[in-house]
Amino acid sequence: MDINLKKLIPFVSKYKKHIYLNVFFNIFYALFSTLLMVSMIPTLNVLFGLNKKVHEAPVYKGIGQIKGYAEEYLNYKITVLTEVNGFKIALLFVISIIIITAFLKNVTNYFASYHVTRLRTGVLRDLRKNLYAKIINLPVSFYSEKRKGDVMARMLGDINDVQNSFFQILELVVREPLTIIFSIVTMFIISPTLTFFVFGFIPVSGIIISRIGKNLKAKSVKAQNENGIFISILDETLGGLKVVKGYNAENSFIEKFNNSINRLLNLSNSIGNKNNLASPLSEFLGIVTIAVLLWFGAQLVVEEHSISSATFITYIALAYTILTPAKSISKASYQVKTGLAAAERVFTLMDEENTIVDLPNAAEKETFEEAIRLENINFRYKKDNVLDNFSLTIPKGKTVALVGQSGSGKSTIANLLTRFYDVNEGKITLDGIDIKSLKMKSLRDLMGLVTQDSILFNDSIKANIALGKPNATDEEIIEALKIANAYEFVKDLPEGIHTNVGDSGNRLSGGQKQRLSIARAVLKNPPIMILDEATSALDTESEKLVQLALENMMQNRTSVVIAHRLSTIQKADTIVVMQKGKIVEQGTHDELVALNGTYNKLVMMQSFE
């Protein structure tokens, strides 16, 4: 069994009741499909006047004689009806058998489909729930290496392929094979000679169809990977549309997108051609078989008289009914290969190891009492250290600012304190406890984060601010907005705190978005605040408002401020100057200016108001 099929079993087993009922109704569907063809024999016999006259009810002699008993009893009923009520009533009787059988076939078909639908949609939901939980729990580092579009393609496209393809297996292993088996058994009962003749053609058909389906799974994997690439290009285009237009790069992106969808077109055509060939090929091979049967069977009817013409017509009809399930099996087997390729991509993501997790005995911590210490830490994203034997103490209630050129490791410290990444060597402690020994939820509950990019979601202002405190009242939210200097513009909005901010908050200015981000941190009210270049993307006027909001927020809190604009951190208790992952200077603003070193050079490069 394919490994991805095994991984799907836990998702399917939850819905085993629907599987059992689907199998149950499919068995009866296959049975009534065969009986529907068999019921043509008495109808044809009555039409052509070929039925045997039987005037006495036959005696049942056991399962071994069931065929003879059924024929005799039916002939007896037709004889009685014809002689007592006339030809029309007898014909109506045999036609009613066809109608009842057709009704039962279609009722069982409906209930079989009903249960497989419940199975498919249930498994689809559970796969999406599990995959989304995996996506949201994987560390930030995972997404620095993967395309977002590829992850989206696995969630949107590949899971649908799994749903649409894998559950063909139930028809592949139950409904269609049973329809074929019941038909072949009935054909064998009618004429063993003709049936053995048919068997000679089935292996040949199977070999031809399987050859055509070769390499289908590999091509499906390529097509699904390409689908991820084109979604990524679309995502990047929408995210960076201003840059694309500003640099007149539309044609470059159009070319990149068109190249991707052309590759996808070629792969899809190749896969589609093989899928499309499955059904007509199996039908053609079946028709060839029936044509040969007509030639061979006609001799049995006309020359040898070993089979009646009505029975032979029914036999041909039964042989033809095998074609539909055979076509379904060949088509479904191709689709299953596509599903296997999709499942491989889905489960590869589900099996992705989360390297940043809680230890089995991780502790809860609800308060911050003393200090945060970074003790001889080394950290690297790939090969070279970004932080090199770095040590720093951040006492409770103090504001520590980190400054330095881009690439000096400032933002990395914010990522390590929040455990978006883990240190390679050394340790970070909170009140003497290694943060790896704390539950991540507990650690992050103690911290508020305001980033350079004001990340807002397409929801109301209230929902965005209440992210860290979902049960917050309107009054608490308004108070947080006031501290963040944001209420002055929020109160003038059409729906106040219930106003939708748009996609990524694009209905607001940069300064307004940043103040809402600060309000979100204020409402959470954590003892430790981490500000990662919170004002660097703002104009001077917005910066002043945001800076005032930050100062309001940082009162009586421990703050780690990562700053590009030195004007925002002059009041910090300690300023740490970093260069290539090491501390080169440390002290207050005045002390560092007096040193006339690296910090003073940075100050001289920037103008203060």
TrEMBL record:
In terms of InterPro entries, this protein maps to: AAA+_ATPase (IPR003593), ABC1_TM_dom (IPR011527), ABC1_TM_sf (IPR036640), ABC_transporter-like_ATP-bd (IPR003439), ABC_transporter-like_CS (IPR017871), P-loop_NTPase (IPR027417), Type_1_exporter (IPR039421)
Under Pfam families, the record lists: ABC_membrane, ABC_tran
Membrane topology per record: Multi-pass membrane protein
Give the domain of life.
Answer: Bacteria
Question: What region holds the ABC transporter domain?
Answer: 372-605
Q: Where in the cell is it found?
A: Cell membrane
| Residue span, ABC transmembrane type-1 domain | 91-338
Q: Which GO terms describe its molecular function?
A: ATP binding
Please give the start and end residues of each transmembrane region: 20-48, 86-104, 180-209
Q: What is its main location?
A: membrane
What the entry lists under SUPFAM superfamilies is as follows: ABC transporter transmembrane region, P-loop containing nucleoside triphosphate hydrolases
PANTHER family from the entry?
ATP-BINDING CASSETTE SUB-FAMILY B MEMBER 10, MITOCHONDRIAL, ATP-DEPENDENT PERMEASE MDL1, MITOCHONDRIAL
Q: What is this protein called?
A: Antibiotic ABC transporter ATP-binding protein
| Species annotation | Flavobacterium pokkalii
